[in-house]
Amino acid sequence: MTSRDPIKATQLPAVAVVVTYRRPQLATQVVKGLIEREGFAPENIILVVNGEGGLADVALQERLDVVKLPDNLGPAGGFNAGIRRFVEGFDQEWVYLCEDDVGLFNLPTPRVQQVLDRLERTQLSSSEKWPAAVVAYGRDLNRRTGITTVHDPAGSSGFVPVDVAPWGASLVSRAVFESGATPDDDWFFGYEDFDFWLKVHEAGFPVLLDVEAARSATETAFGSGRDAAFQGVRPDDETEPWRAYYVARNFLELARRHGHIGWTAWHLAKSVRRWQLGSRQARKATVAGLKDGFLRRMGRNDAYVRTVGEISS
């Protein structure tokens, strides 16, 4: 993260949820940043341990509100568990959703209180519900093809609407969850974040991109910059061919829920291209994913799961 001076813990109107799986060092860095840079009190940080892992700093972990899941439920199940704990056990208005590797993406800190302060001065159209959801980096969705592209923050300021986003470091209001828009455990991994944000839109809430964060993270959140940020720290996407299974499978469900047959046609064309360019393992995963996608098989497939979370130094 882009770090400024540490700040003292304050009464932020937010609770942080950090979901982690097999990344104790990275998760520890994220939690320390939330405390030292953002001002979260440890008891207002929900750490969701997705079956295996936790923090490298055991003493720090004991100060947090820990949700230990019995098995790996993926980011979909992990964030859903953290959100349930937030809704049932806390009275703050906002939750800050963090993946355990978000510390690699050069986001400005502190930002939570600043984002909330700026939101108070933001005027939305009368057709939009308020409060909103704010993402750190977003994507625009082509409604004809279902293809998404990174939203370019150039020339913008403040907050701008986007269609979908990675989980990243996102602020979401309690009202969103109370409307029934929550992550779906059945997705496990892959497009589960897009499904959630599209449900947020369907519930009438805007999804806003924090332009300042997007500019800061431009070089590290996507593409080659993302791979460079991961270098020597965690596996990149190319070295995790198991991902191809969920990309192939889950987009078919995304098209059913939020799109149309045109999305499916474009997805099949892209899948053929991925198959042509992929490794032997990725090709196998793509074919298996398409098959299970058409059969509407969801959830975790134990043949395609992460084995290495982070690279030991």
Q: How would you characterize this protein structure?
A:
- This protein is an alpha/beta fold.
- It has 2 domains: 2-228, Spore Coat Polysaccharide Biosynthesis Protein SpsA, Chain A (Alpha-Beta Complex), CATH 3.90.550; 239-294.
- The protein contains 11 helices and 12 strands.
- The strands form 3 sheets. The protein has an 8-stranded mixed β-sheet with strand order 4-3-2-5-11-7-12-10, with helices on both faces. A two-stranded parallel ribbon has the order 1-6. The chain has a two-stranded antiparallel sheet with strand order 8-9.
- α10 packs antiparallel against α11 (280-294).
- The longest helix has 17 residues, at 261-277.
- It is globular, with a radius of gyration of 19 Å.
Which stretches are poorly predicted, pLDDT < 50 over at least 5 residues?
1-9
**Portion of residues within helices:** 25-40%
Tally of contiguous helical segments: 11
What is the assembly state of the chains in this entry? single chain
Cα(first) to Cα(last) distance is: 19 Å
Mean pLDDT: 91
Number of strands: 12
Instruction: Predict the CATH topology of the largest domain.
Output: Spore Coat Polysaccharide Biosynthesis Protein SpsA, Chain A
Radius of gyration: 19 Å
Spatially, the strands of the biggest sheet line up as 4-3-2-5-11-7-12-10
Largest sheet: 8 strands, mixed
Secondary structural class: alpha/beta
Shape: globular
Can you name the CATH architecture of the largest domain?
Answer: Alpha-Beta Complex
